[in-house]
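Page 37, continued from 36.
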């Protein structure tokens, strides 16, 4: 999505963010990149999901570390 936005295409994020620091960073980062966030929602009292994906260079195996509280 960000790549397309950087290429000048219209992009939009339609989804939810938690009412926390991670949600604020995510929402503001998308807006700063020119992504339309008008259809996004901040859910009061909810936590934003965060995932880190670790990829083993040799095997290609992926490990996902995920905080799963939902917005």
């Amino acid at each position: 999505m960000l790549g397309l936005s950087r290429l000048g295409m219209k992009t939009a994020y339609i989804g939810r963010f938690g009412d926390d620091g991670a949600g604020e960073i995510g929402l503001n980062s998308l807006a700063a990149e020119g992504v339309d966030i008008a259809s996004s929602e901040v859910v009061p009292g909810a936590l934003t999901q965060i995932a880190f994906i670790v990829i083993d260079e040799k095997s290609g195996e992926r490990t996902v570390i995920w905080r799963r509280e939902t917005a």
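The chain is about 25% helix and 25% strand. Flag for discussion at group meeting. Residues 2-67 form one domain.
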